[in-house]
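## tool: complex_structure
## caller: assistant
## args:
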Amino acid sequence: MDLSFLEVLERETVLEVLRRDKQLRIIEEDRIRRMKYELQELRRKGAKSYARQYGERTCARCQRPLGKFWNSGAVCRGCSHRICSKCRIGAVDWKCTVCHAYRDVKIRSGEWFLEEKAKKFPVTKDKYETVGEKLLKISNVLSHISVVPPTPPPHLDYNFLSRSGDLKNSRPFTKSMENLMVSFTSHIKKISTSQNDVREDLLSVDGGRKPARFKFSTQKSLSDTDINKSSTLFKVPSLPNLFKKSKDSDHEGSSTGAEEETSFSSEQSGGKRGSCSSISTDCSILDGLSVTGELELAVAYNPGSSCLDITVGACRALVCGDGKKKCRPFVKLHVLPDKSCKLKTSVKKNTTDPVFNEVLKFDIERHLLYGKRLQASVWHSGTLKRKVFLGEVLIPLDAWTSNNKDLQGFNWYPLCPKRPENSSGGAAEHDRVKHSSNNLGV
Amino acid sequence: MLERLTAEQVDTFIVELKFIAVITMTDGDYDYLIKLLALGDSGVGKTTFLYRYTDNKFNPKFITTVGIDFREKRVTGLLGLQYQAYTAANPNGTTAGKTFKVHLQLWDTAGQERFRSLTTAFFRDAMGFLLMFDLTSQQSFLNVRNWMSQLQANAYCENPDIVLVGNKADLADQREVQEKQAKELADKYGQVYFSHTGFRVIPYFETSAATGADVDKAVITLLDLVMKRMEQCVDKPPAEPANGNGATKLGDTQPTEKKCAC
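## result:
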């Protein structure tokens, strides 16, 4: 279905309508994202953290202890958690606060409609698309073809790669990009089992090239479809997904190394955009280091320069990354779910209580902070560019969308183990899918 | 914004207040986005009907709609599901607190045959339908049957919420369709077509975009039906719909509430 049966002027008229529709859709998507984020926060408040025992008899929402006979709580029909009498909404057919909020979001976000529609018109893609959206995309693609120069032939790329490449390593580069991706992941899997020095070398060379190539291929295809892209960047997970995910996070910290490995390798095959140095270090999460220590941060929004100013104060009681006596820590900042911009502090030498006092700035409009999270991770900078993950802090940035004086000033945050990638939200996922398809298509 | 205007401009500003309210509502400050769609034969007055509803104006000229269009309006609802126009002067309705805001996206479709493939494609994204015919045209009334089957084929479900609207009620001397006939048809579709899902009422209204009679009422009634529908959809037991119409690839669209969380 396209607009080719229309005359030129008619087509322009219809496209204009579809563009107006898109404006409305962007507003709506933003609204839904906010709504789902609030729901997620509500869930997180009640989530059992790793510090608590799961079997403990507490209300799943407010964490108040439940008695054996008096105020013993009852099981919510929606989530099957034991809920105290204060966290229920409704009289006879009650639901817990989270299930009630979930139902509410399902109605207000229009998710009910998408579910109904999917019964009659099953969705084949990973996201719902309205007819208008589809038509607009098709017409964008058509106009896009005529304007943008053809993508460069693959040999360019090969030259580029082999110019700085080592002969020994050149074999994987001659493969098509798809193969490269596949071999890349398999290398990583091998490495995670045997930390062979040569392979690690190969890996870092491999990885060092990937982002550069990435830029190269995306620049060409960005021009006018990137409007579409930027809107999908902010996609939120669909409600059921969100629900499932947050169910997982009920058991935060209980995940085993094996789980992490799977989530990690799938992440790689998707073509992660993050730094390659951390790719090699992600492996060392699997070493099973325990995470201790705290990170001191001050987060403030500067409306004058429209920057998010993050002051990294210090760390204390870090775990020693190398197993040896020397820890060389630094802090890396991301604003999730968009992993594209990354800031780092300097590396401090031979200390587990480093003092940084560095101000790092993210250039970001205030209203875009909605639904974003600051990921501050601490790393040990080892030899041969090897880095070891020492813990991270995730801070929701919604609170900084308004001028709140209470939020300024330093705070100590306890460091947490790395969360599975999917907890960083669907936006990153979409991003990844988008990019990998981009990548393979060239 | 007001200080920058001259005295004459302020006059026009006040006159155009409604228009400005339309412009400033491009924000996410609403509770529900409800998408309704008007359909029916060419010339029955879909565009003028919607223009009357959103802007409270009447344009007697016939300008055929090219493919599709939409208009927007924001209404506030009180808890008792009464709606009132959302204007800049009265942003929260009369009572504070228990109100909610609905952003209405009202799709207008071309009645002409040559746009049919385009317009029917848009049916599936609408939550409720204003099925319109012209009270002064027997043919447009007979075609309601065709539109009904188009809806069943293309709407998001087999029995969507519909309001039947007979427009141009002000032209009493040219009337060709009697109220009784139309009511019977609405009842028939309410019972016969949708009997497998239980009785569902299709309300019928005689409206006039020229005088504005019952225009608001028709839209609000449809909105009301859609709002009730969403409550039903969310509250019904999740096991029932899965085996209904053989949709197999539901996958992640199913509510995961009952699934194992591992």
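## assistant note: The mean pLDDT of chain A is 67. The CA atoms of residues 74 and 80 of chain A lie 9 Å apart. Handing back to user.
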